[in-house]
Structures are given as C-alpha cells and as structure tokens.
C-alpha cells in the first residue's frame, strides 16, 4: 500500500496514531500525575525514534535529494520532536507552550502539506516515520492538555508566537553560516524557500521575498492558537484561565 495524500495508506497512518493517542488518554487518565508523565515520555521517546528513523531513511536513499547539511535537527518540527520529552517530564512552561501551539499545529499541517518527496513510498517503509513523528508532535501536546500536564491560556497563545519567532531568529544565524561554508541550500525553518510545502507556497506567492514571506504566516497563526485555547476550555469545562506554576526544568513530582 502506497502512502499518498488522502490515500488509504495515508489514512491508515493517521488513524493508527490517533488510536494510540485515544488509548493513551484512556489508560493514563486515572493514573497519578507521575505515571501520566512517564506514560507520555514513552510516546515522546517513540517520537524521537521516528524522527531519527525517517531522517536516516531519506539520507541513505540515493534516489532522493535529502542533503545532510539541509536536514540537521534544526527545523521546527524536528526540534519539537526532541522537545516533547522535557515538555512531558518537567513543568517548564515555555517548552510546553512551544510544543502545544506551533509544534502541534506545524506537526499536523505537515501531514497535509508536505513536499511531494514525502509521499509515494510503501506504507511499511521507514519513510512512513515522517508522518508518525509529525502526528505525534500533535498528539502528545493534546494529551499533555487532556491529562492535565499543561493548561493552555490565551496569554500562552500570544507568547507562543513570540517563542516561535525567537526560535526562528536563533536558528537563522546557523542557517546563514551553513549556507556560507557547507551548503548554500540550507534552509532551516523554511526562511528562504517553502521547498514545496503547499501552505508555505501559498504565502510565498503572496510575498515572494525570503524571510519576509513568513510574516503573514506569523500573523495568521495567532487566531489558530486562540482557537486551540477555546477548544481546550470548552472540552475541559474551564471558565477561567488557570495556568500551572511557572515551573522549572527539574522533573515534576509524582
């Protein structure tokens, strides 16, 4: 079975990861907070493993253009795949916010708007881990909220935009250095080119200028982040924002 957008293989992956998410919620919801964190840590470990596996699969395929210097773990989704582990094991709110808002949205959208190179392979190929990793980037933050590890607020939605911009500006000098000394095609966070991603292509057509074409995207995501909070509050029956303590990078108790 071949994985194509909206094809049977694609739906199998989506439904399988969604089923894992639902099962994880049902199994962990009656557990202590410590057990919930450890349970989600297992999924976070799978996320990291899936990210590594699909990168290796593409890097070792001579028929695919997937250069090493263009695919270091510096893209937003790859960074989030590594951040979900500290997000579920600690109470450090900035990391949780980054994972819940831009991380989850980008992970889900990647499955719908990925470049053509990520489709057309067999369902059982290691390349399918691309979709597994990106879907877990969505599922794990949702579970963080549904299991009470993270309570998003409208203020968090605004901060998430800032965190994403800061992350992008942090990665930009590395991208520029790599373009100068290693590979002129380095394009982390897609600041220079959308590289076939359908959604980013739309913004690039609107503003065909490197870096600047992402500005409308930054503006457009805030309502999406606000909608995430609204959905959470409706689902949880929350009437007033109740953020967790500021937190730290130390493991949570329990």
UniProtKB/TrEMBL annotation:
Keywords: Membrane, Transmembrane, Transmembrane helix. It comes from the Bacteria. The chain crosses the membrane at residues 6-28, 40-60, 72-92, 99-119, 131-150, 162-182, 211-232. Pfam families: TMEM164 (PF14808). This is TIGR02206 family membrane protein.
